[in-house]
Amino acid sequence: MTSNSDAARLLGTRIREERQRFAINQMELAELAGLHFTNLGKIERGQANPSLHTILRIAGALNLNPAVLIDGMTPDMLPDRPHKVTVADLIRARENGGTA
Q1: Residue 44 and residue 14: Cα distance in Å, rounded?
Q2: Would the N or C end of the chain have less CB density within 10 A of its end CB?
């Protein structure tokens, strides 16, 4: 599945920068993370939406806290977000006798 969201591009950029900081190639990082190098390439290009397990594997291989990879990301960075209402909006609406 092609992602091409701002979040996917930012994640991929962060992973690529960390990989390059260690001067290793995609095949080496993929091997360390237990992934196929073509999948890692798609992630780095922002063309894939990796699972939580995959993000954790990559972070572990980079000896990195996974929070670093997603720091500052927001739901607004996702395409076609189904709801812009948050739980705070819902509670406020309920307290005011309406709906969100």
Answers
A1: 8
A2: N
Buried b (16+ CB within 10 A) or exposed e, 51-70: eeebbebbbebbeeeeeebe
Element (H, E) at 38: helix 37-44
Residues 28, 18: Cα–Cα separation, whole Å: 13
pTM for the predicted model, two decimal places: 0.82
Residues 68 and 14 sit within 8 Å (Cβ to Cβ) = yes
Which tokens hold the place of 54?
């995959």
Residue 30 burial (C-beta neighbours within 10 Å; 0-12, 13-18, 19+):
buried
pLDDT tens per residue, range 5-58: 999 999 999 999 999 999 999 999 999 999 999 999 999 999 999 999 999 999
Contact 69, 15 (CB under 8 A): yes
